[in-house]
Design brief:
- It is a single chain.
- This protein is α/β, with parallel strands linked by helices and about 300 residues long.
- The protein contains 13 helices and eight strands.
- Strands 1-2-4-3-5-6-7-8 form an eight-stranded mixed beta sheet, with helices on both faces.
- About 45% of the residues are buried.
Amino acid sequence: MITRRALVLGGLGGLGAAAATGGAGYALVESGALPGKVRLDRALGRCGDVPAPPPASVRAETMTWRSAHRRTTVTATVVPPAANRSPRGLPVVVALHGTGEDGSSLVRNLALDHYLPDAVANGGVLPFTLVSVDGGRDTYWHPRASGDDPLGMIVDELLPRLRDRGARTDRVGAIGWSMGGYGALVLARRLGRARTAAVVASSPALFASYEDAVATNRRSFDGAADYQRHDVFAALEELKGVPLRVDCGTSDPFADRVRDFRDRVRPEGGLEGGCHDAAFWRRQLRRELAFLGHRLSPR
C-alpha cells in the first residue's frame, strides 16, 4: 500500500519534498499539513465520477438586461419545473454560481434543467422556478468597491422582473455552490428571515480570516474591512430561524471551515465523501432540491 501511495504521490506535481519521500510525506498530505490533498484524493479515486443526470429535461429560457447595480449586461437563466410551465404563481429559488462561472454555465454544468423537473415529477417536490443569474467571475456576491453589486442586482432587478411575470417573490429560496454557497448565505442576510424561505450552501467558500481569503483568491474582498462586513461567522444571529442546509465533501479544501460553521449553526445536510467538484454537487442535488421545495410556499 505504501508503495502504491508513493507512486501516486510521485505523479502529483507541487506536493513538496516531504510528499516525495513516500509514507511520511503521504501522512502529511493526508492530514492537510501539505498542499495537494485534493489532487491526492482525486488520484486515489475518492472524488468519484460525475453522475449522469436524469434523462428528461426542460427548456430553460433567458432574461437579459443592462444591470444598474452590476454596471454591465447580465443574463438570468430561468429553469421551469416542467415543460412549458411559466413562473406565474410559482415560488422562486435563486441559484448562485461559483468562481469563473456565469448563470448559464451553472445550469449546464450541474444539469439543473434535468434535476429540477425530476425532483418535481418523481421526488414529490412542489414545483418552483429555479433562476440562475450572472454574478461576476469573482465578486463573491457582495457589493464591491468598483460599484459592482450583485446582491443589489438580485434584490432590486432580478426579483422584481420575476414578480412582473407573476412569480411569487414575497419569500424566496437560495442555493449556491462554492463562491455561490457563500453568496447564498450573504443573500439570506440581505433578505432577512421574513423573506428567506430556505437556503442551501453547497461546499461554501468560507474563510478563517481575510488573509486566508486573499490567499485563496486575491479578488475575493476589497480589504480587511470589506471582509469583516461580509463575514458570515460574525453574523450567525442573522441566520437563526432561516431553514438552512449545508453540504460539503470531506476532501474539499473548505471542509474544515464548513465543519466549524456547521458546529455553530447546526444546519441540515452534512459532510460526506467527495471533493470540490460537480461529482459531489450532483450527488447532493436531489436532497437539496427537496429541502428547498418542501420549505417554499405552496401554490
